[in-house]
Design a protein that fits this description.
This protein has 66 residues and is mostly helical. Helix content is 44%, strand content 0%. It has three helices and no strands. It has helices at residues 23-26, 29-40, 53-65. The longest helix is centred in the C-terminal third of the chain and has 13 residues, at 53-65. 0% of the residues are buried.
Amino acid sequence: MNKQRYERGSVLITSNLPFSKWEIIFKDPMTTAAAVDRLVHHSVILELNVPSYRAEQARKRKYKDM
């Protein structure tokens, strides 16, 4: 990580998967644990249990085109 950037700026990461399912992405439990550990260090985690806006818009476009 760039030391000039470290703990000086914000990064936003979104996912539709909880951390417990990230092994699907990284394939290896150790790699998954390391990635999650580094992401949550000094983090604020916002869990939003709302429908996906993009998925809803895609559904509307699909039905509109039919």
